[in-house]
Design goal:
heterodimer, A: about 300 residues, alpha/beta, Peroxisomal Thiolase, Chain A, domain 1, 2 domains, 5-stranded mixed sheet, 11 helices, B: about 90 residues, mainly alpha, globular
């Protein structure tokens, strides 16, 4: 059964970004917000040029992404056994109480069980992917859709000391009988207790990052040099590069700069956006190992993915 | 270079950075921790990035073990010393 789960194909990724493109500098009171968040740092060094804002209800973007995922895989709504939705804690609080029903009905997913994974902030979607894969322990399950969403209704809340937030919903399809683009080799998520209390430091952040990365590599039977590319969280560019260096990842191993510039930090969807962008520009290669990574105050998460393309 | 000289070099460098330009040598000399100087994590990262650019021409990359020393001033000075020692081109200052 374990081997069977390891061969579940993951693919047909689809991104639905906010439809309105905006420049951070056009956010009302941006200079004041940035000064408060950054204590005098030059915003131009952060690597963020534009971000996307959703002008309509978030469920419309989720439906759009999932529709394109199904179309890309040639799957029908009746094929889907489970829909796993992942979001960060602040966005969770903004979802309408009938959110899952609205999405299921709009997509015609009449025989599909909805799930929610949250409370791990921007690490939620990494746990959601593992949960989605583990649903295949039921031999009757053949298709699972996973979707990560994050959005910020008030533009003034986008400007944070560690990232500029954008809006996106990104989906993918897990299938039992199709190799997809990648398969999940291993995963790990760990907690930084100092971060939960708002007292995280360089030391505590590095400690949780080291523990998480080691656990994922050990479980996946890999060494760090075997990782072809890292799909990181789109924090401000200097922070993203620093965080990678702090766990021994060379800066050139990361794929994030162009998506950071265009979309900012789309919460727990970043690693999927970066995977899609990398696949479009370079291509995910069969047999290669990829690392998806995210972090948030109190959390660090990693996925080891193996390319399955022939 | 002695530790006090590095403290001076660090203070001079902070004074040239837009986000730390109001920090004086006297404050650096008194401080034990980065928090006492009001340098945030983001600003500390930028100080390091800019220091590596200025003094090594980006020939040095961050080392994981340096991260653990960025909370106190003596640790930061030891990192700056190692950055200078690791440069593969002559330092510019």
């Amino acid at each position: 059964m374990i081997l069977d789960l390891e061969n579940i194909g993951i693919g047909s990724f689809a991104c639905a970004f906010g439809d309105l493109e905006n420049k951070p500098e056009n956010i009302p009171d941006f200079d004041s917000l940035w000064e408060t968040a950054s204590f005098g740092t030059d915003f131009a060094e952060m690597g963020c040029t534009t971000y996307r804002k959703m002008s309509g209800p978030v469920q419309e973007y989720v439906v759009d992404a999932v529709r394109r995922t199904l179309r890309g895989a040639g799957a029908g709504a009746t094929d889907i056994d489970h829909l796993v939705i992942a979001t960060s804690d602040p966005a969770l609080a903004l979802l309408p109480p009938d959110f899952a029903e609205q999405v299921l009905i709009a997509l015609g997913l009449d025989d599909c069980v909805p799930h929610l994974v949250s409370y791990q902030r921007c690490c939620s979607s990494l746990t959601a992917l593992r949960h989605s894969r583990d649903l295949f322990a039921d031999p009757d399950v053949t298709h699972v859709v996973m979707v990560a969403l994050d959005f910020v209704p008030d533009d003034r809340d986008r400007v944070r000391p560690y990232a500029l937030f954008g809006d996106a919903a990104v989906s993918c399809l897990l299938t039992r009988h199709d190799p997809g683009l990648v398969r999940l080799s291993s995963s790990a998520v760990k907690v930084d207790p100092d971060g939960l209390r708002g007292r995280d430091t360089f030391v505590s952040r590095k400690a949780v990052a080291d523990r998480t990365l080691s656990a994922a590599l050990r479980a996946g039977g890999r060494q760090l040099p075997q990782v072809t590319k890292v799909f990181a969280a789109n924090l401000y560019k200097p922070l993203t590069l620093f965080n990678a260096s702090s766990v021994g990842l060379p800066p050139d191993r990361l794929h994030f700069a162009d998506t950071l510039s265009a979309y900012g930090h789309c919460g727990n969807a970043d690693w999927m956006i970066n995977l899609v962008d990398y696949h479009e520009r370079v291509g995910i290669r069969g047999g290669q190992t990829y690392l998806a990574q995210s972090l948030a105050p109190g959390f660090y998460a990693c996925l080891l993915l193996e390319g399955t393309a022939p | 270079m002695a530790t006090d000289d590095y403290r001076r070099k660090f203070a001079d460098f902070l004074a040239k950075q837009p986000m730390t330009s109001d920090i004086t040598y006297e404050q650096v000399a008194r401080a034990k921790s980065r928090d006492e100087l009001g340098i945030t994590s983001l600003n500390m990262v930028l100080v390091l990035v800019n220091y590596i650019d200025e003094y090594t021409g980006n020939t040095v990359t961050m080392r994981p073990e340096w991260v653990l020393r960025l909370g106190d001033i003596d640790g930061i000075l030891s990192v700056l010393r190692e950055i200078d020692a690791s440069a593969v081109v002559p330092t510019r200052a």
